[in-house]
Amino acid sequence: MLDLNKELKKYIENVIEATKIIMASYEEQKSMFSENFPIADEIALNFSDEVVYQVEYFKKNNLITDIQYQKIKALDEKLNFMSSDKSKDYWSIEALKTFNEWAECRELAKKILKEFIK
Amino acid sequence: MALKKKAKDKVTKKKSDSNDSKKVSSSDNKTKEDSDTSSDSNDDVDNDLDDESDTIDVNSNVEYNEGTGSDSEITNEKKLLTGDDWNNYFKNTYGSKNVQWESAVKSMDDILDVPSDITKLKPQQLADLAKKEGWVVEPLGKGRKAGIPFEEGGGMSIRKLNPDGIPTGEYIQYHPGSTYHDSIPYYKVSYGNYKGPRRFELGGGVVK
């Protein structure tokens, strides 16, 4: 028997943790990981693995609100676009520091946190 | 010759089926001959095998001579053999298709219990074990390697599903790193009992 409340609590912790990493400044992000680590990749993957992959389940069971769901999907779509667009290298450490797309990701992450931390 | 003698000592016939399956073990297949020969040299062999793996299965119809190797052929010279040496030796002897190394990690749940054990597996071994146990193995979903199959140089996102097909939230990831960005390959293990995922270099070091 699944304990939905326990699962939801754990999921929300994951949402907050993963979203904070995306929202962090470049300097903070760099300090979170070891040297020679694919930091930009890992930041996006971490959000995908910890948050996006289970979001449909929690939405389907009405454990998160429509707005929470939409905010998560907005950031997910942005990261998907960056992953599929091969015209620019979004995944270098420089990109994390200077690209507008990452600045937009930080803004989207801020909106997610606003919905989950009240 | 000494190498052949040592290897022979480790081989016992397995009578589990009619296919002459042979099993080589570093820990539990002690033959009488083991106790009759120099224990020092056998200990060396055991340690070397442990470096690579605990056991191997040799499923073949090749023949081997259980009684060959006279005492005069055995030297007291000790030579350190690596896991690669043994791998090459068995593959040359029995054919590469007939040698399969078993790892010390027996199940995916072993990795969830002790995440650092993932470094005992090579990425291909991890993929094989995950598929065998019904975990979902997919290319990475985001980043530079997104959508690139493991077989083509991409990574792996490996997820556990419950009996209803719903993700349990437990997952394992392999990222191949990037030579372009000079970044290292790594594993990541996420399990509910731990706060946040854990990351490991393939060689065994923990990365934050």
Task: Give a quick rundown of the structure.
The complex is a heterodimer of chains A (118) and B (208). Chain A is an all-alpha fold.
Question: Can you describe this structure?
Answer:
The complex is a heterodimer of chains A (118) and B (208). With 118 residues, chain A is mainly alpha-helical. Chain A has six helices and no strands. Chain A has helices spanning 4-23, 26-32, 39-60, 66-84, 93-98, 100-116. In chain A, helix 3 packs antiparallel against helix 4 and helix 4 (66-84) packs antiparallel against helix 6. The radius of gyration of chain A is 15 Å and the shape is globular. Chain B has 208 residues and is an alpha+beta fold. The interface between A and B is medium-sized, with 35 and 31 residues.
Helix content of chain A: over 70%
N-to-C SSE string of chain A, H for helix and E for strand: HHHHHH
Low-confidence stretches of chain A: none
How many helix segments of chain B? 6
Low-confidence stretches of chain B: 1-70
Which protein chains make the most extensive interface, counting residues with beta carbons within 8 Å of the other chain's beta carbons? A-B, 35 and 31 residues
Question: How much is the radius of gyration of chain B in Å?
Answer: 20 Å
Number of strands of chain B: 10
Query: Kindly, what is the distance between the CA atoms of the first and last residues of chain B, rounded to a whole number of angstroms?
Result: 47 Å
Average pLDDT rating of chain A: 93
Backbone shape of chain B: globular
